[in-house]
Write a structure and sequence with these properties.
Radius of gyration: 26 Å
Number of domains: 2
CATH superfamily of the largest domain: DD-peptidase/beta-lactamase superfamily
CATH architecture of the largest domain: 3-Layer(aba) Sandwich
Number of strands: 21
Number of helices: 9
Order of helices and strands: EHEEEHHHHHEEEHHEEEEEEHEEEEEEEE
Structural class: alpha+beta
Largest sheet: 9 strands, antiparallel
Length: about 450
């Protein structure tokens, strides 16, 4: 057990873990929390063989494998070897989804069937890439809108083959060289390496176990083959949160965390980015992935805003509640919330920017422009109102580029009068003025002028 938390917090977390393992009759279950890159609590219940699981015990992590495949694809994109908008046919011709983009496969919005042709791939020996691709005919397309969410294990089998064809080596060799070795993830493997848990099905009405198979999935391995440990998954959680160790630029990981499709209809709680599952919970925006293979369940969620992650792994086919990790995060947030850093005045603020700060109006709507200590401008709605907020970085020529929100990528220009005083902000035709609809500003400045009601 690793912890740096108060005894009362440890007990609350342990009780939640113990209830999960006991009530759902899980042979073994390990779970933990990571904050600011350090494991602050981890514990296990049940046994692997005759011993409790440790942070070095391997479990099969199922579809968390997809996140590694997605990183390999994004590395190739960043190297200029492919474009996410390109059709699959350019690299893998001859399937019924040749006109679908690589990006749609990553975001689970290609319309491709969930499972490959033939027997249940998770419980039978896998075939070759040629066999997988030959089964992707017109019957593999689903009637959902092509821009809509439809989870596809097959799609990640295809993406694994895409990696192999571009890199010239099997996807797992590329993963070892490009991801696992640089990040020091020595206990993440394609096949189990002791110490590891065996997978079981638990009888629904009796306390007996059924050993589950752990077949080599062949061409479908990129959808769910990997085995890993808590320690390695903690490193992977840091990666998804932005600590990428130069394997991928943090901005690319941020791109992967942006929603590409929504998977739960009108609730809009869950979604999918580029190879990452997304979840909104109690104002948290979580990214990671769930995992399920015969005999194993796992989940990894990370909250980049809070630099906090939660992980669990279990050797059971079914039974672990989907709320386990969010309950652990909620407990941590309630009992040991993050203590804000001490505020200190910044020694390196560009004082010439102060004339830009303060209240601006877009039409009648108030906004406030602030200078941040990191040299960014922050434009936010004023007076507690809702609206479009964005941060801006300087371009070196007097203009600024939006980093996030509605104005991401848009250019902010400063309008000035003859003596150089800032009089308006021009944000891609959105004009912000010092007073509502200032008469001397471009549209939507004082077009007709203010007037009393009835005049």
């Amino acid at each position: 057990m690793v912890t740096s938390l108060l005894p009362s917090t440890q007990r609350a977390l342990l009780r939640r873990l113990a209830v999960e393992q006991s009530e759902n009759r899980v042979p073994s279950l390990i779970a933990g929390l990571v904050r600011d890159g350090e494991t602050i609590w981890v514990d296990s219940r049940g046994k692997v063989g005759d011993e409790p699981a440790t942070t070095d015990t391997q479990y099969r992590v199922g579809s968390i494998t997809k996140t590694f495949v997605a990183v390999l694809v994004m590395r190739m994109r960043d190297e200029g070897l492919l474009d996410l908008a390109e059709p699959l046919d350019r690299f893998i011709p001859g399937t019924s989804i040749g006109d679908r983009s690589i990006g749609s496969l990553l975001s689970q919005s290609s319309g491709l069937t969930a499972e490959p042709a033939g027997q249940w791939w998770e419980r039978t020996p896998g075939g070759s890439a040629e066999e997988l691709l030959s089964g992707i005919d017109d019957s593999a397309l689903r009637p959902t809108p092509r821009h809509g969410f439809h989870y596809s294990n097959v799609g990640f089998g295809v993406l694994g083959e895409l990696v192999a064809r571009i890199r010239g080596v099997p996807w797992y060799e590329a993963m070892q060289r490009e991801i696992l070795d640089p990040l020091g993830m020595k206990r993440t493997t394609l096949s189990p390496v002791a110490p590891h848990a065996d997978g079981y099905g638990v009888h629904p009405w009796a306390d007996v176990l059924l050993p589950e198979p752990a077949e080599d999935a062949g061409a479908m391995a990129p959808a769910g083959q990997l085995w890993s440990t808590f320690d390695d998954m903690a490193r992977w959680a840091k990666f998804i949160g932005g600590d990428t160790g130069e394997v991928l630029h943090p901005d690319t990981v941020l791109e992967m965390r942006l929603p590409g499709s929504v998977d739960d209809g009108p609730q809009w709680r869950g979604g999918y980015g580029l190879g990452l599952q997304l979840l909104r919970h109690n104002n948290r925006r979580l990214a990671g992935h769930t995992g399920s293979m015969p005999g194993f369940l796992s989940t990894l969620w990370t909250d980049p805003e809070e630099s906090t992650s939660a992980i669990f792994m279990a050797n059971t086919t079914a039974g672990v509640n989907g709320t386990l990790l969010t309950d652990l995060l909620d407990t941590l947030g309630e009992l040991e919330p993050r203590i804000p850093e001490t505020w200190l005045p910044s020694p390196d603020v560009d004082m010439t920017l102060l004339e830009l700060t303060g209240e601006w109006y877009w039409g009648p709507s108030p906004y406030v422009l602030k200078v941040r200590s990191n040299g960014l401008l922050d434009l936010v709605p004023g007076h507690g109102r809702r609206g479009r907020a964005s941060r801006f970085k300087p371009n070196g020529d007097g203009t600024w580029t939006g980093l996030d929100g509605y104005h991401s990528g848009e250019i902010l220009r400063i309008g000035r009068d003859t003596d150089g005083t800032p009089t308006y902000l021009d944000l891609n035709t959105f004009i912000f003025t010092r007073t509502p609809y200032a008469a001397d500003a471009p549209v939507p400045g004082g077009v007709a002028g203010w007037r009393p009601a009835g005049s």
